[in-house]
């Protein structure tokens, strides 16, 4: 699969603070509706699932359909009660999973 | 078959045009599976209008990337939070757009994604709360360039 996903979130947060997380991953998100030059349909190949966990607990996830734009951008929020690691995973139609991790610290 | 008069010739021509128009347009009558998907999601229950704010452009110049922002009113605590939000588009070849799953850890029931819209149509959101109640909202987006095929 494609390049490293881009993730934007603060490095640290106050306890209980709600932070915003922005993610962007390069992917064609082939819808299965398009046809090639010979008129044959191009098979569907999309990221069908995205999940975000914080210290092993689910925070946000979504099921994606072909109606999601290429290079899927997903923005959501998360409440930070402790320091830890966010784990992100994008699942491709071909079964491969792209993962990323980001750490967050608590503000003193 | 005798000679074809003008009216018949016109009808034939019209039929041919209808067949050759992008298959997407043919599927685009409110005949996609939007209603069934919503029914499946709600379990046949009626969703009340409200609580959801959809931020979508009124006119999308490019249907390939239409920004969609969602906010659902909810305290997002362990006792009361938004569980799932289903998005469907009633004029796309397939109605499904995305299903977002929130948890109390989300803090806020807010999210943004970018979607494809094949043509001018309604985007419908249905939210399922932790207590099982259902809310819905819809918005029409005018699309000048369709977002699939091509």
Automatic annotation (TrEMBL), chain A:
It comes from the Bacteria. Gene3D superfamilies: Immunoglobulins. Residues 7-101 form the Sulphur oxidation protein SoxZ domain. Pfam families: SoxZ. This is Thiosulfate oxidation carrier complex protein SoxZ. It comes from Bradyrhizobium aeschynomenes.
